[in-house]
Amino acid sequence: MGIMGKIRGAGVRRGAVLSVAGLVVAPALVLGTGTAAQAASCTAAKGPYQKQVEKWLKRTADGKQSAADCKAIRSFQVAKGITPAIGYAGPVTWRTMKTITAQQAAGKTPNKAKKCPTNKGRIACVDLTRQLSWIQDGSKLRFGPVPVRTGRNGAETRTGATKIYWRNIDHWSTLYDVRMPYAQFFDGGQAFHSVTKTMYNNPGSAGCVNMRPADAKSYWNLLRNGDDVFVYGRKPGT
């Protein structure tokens, strides 16, 4: 995003689109009562990851959809910005749960595998696989790790070693007609910047590394032009 370079066009895999479309039109008994809008908010359909999702939510993992299961799944989807939020245990919901588990496992040693260089001094690391970012000085963790939202399928955040080359605390993207607070550009039009969406909102950004406002502000205060950035891995679902 931004005026410093054009992000590759947004795209979603055809299979993913068909899958979501299938959920919307698939015959399903509706759980609950009330208005038509309220009734359509939850589905009785059993998802392909039903048992795994139930177990992750600490529910009885019997692989059978119930009204209570649907409510719990839908609550998770709403909280994480997953659409459609209808309580269906589909691939996006399960993928998000696995990503959260991996993020929690990272703890305060996100670079335990040494995939982000430790010989660069101050560097911002972005792990697309775990959707995590952090700042380190050599091998010492300086800030994070924090969850991030990176490029969707067809507009992936590019991998490799770059440097921050332009910063604008209150940037306005003329390409997308949106604000990009605390924008720090590091690869063409791709930048760290804050958003008001959740970090798990699907399908992802248009290539930038989206951050929660407080995290983006901390990055702004800690990084400068010329600081290194290293992006590696592959975002699940791309």
- The helix content, as a percent range, equals 25-40%
Radius of gyration over alpha carbons?
Answer: 19 Å
Distance between the termini: 19 Å
By DSSP (H or I, 4+ residues per run), the number of helices equals 6
CATH topology of the largest domain: L,D-transpeptidase catalytic domain-like
Indicate the mean pLDDT: 86
Query: How much of the residues is beta strand, in percent?
Result: 15-25%
At the fourth level of CATH, the homologous superfamily of the largest domain is L,D-transpeptidase catalytic domain-like
Largest sheet: 5 strands, mixed
GO molecular function: peptidoglycan L,D-transpeptidase activity; transferase activity
InterPro entries: LD-transpeptidase, LD_TPept_cat_dom, Transpep_catalytic_dom
Pathway: Cell wall biogenesis; peptidoglycan biosynthesis
Organism: Streptomyces sp. gb1(2016)
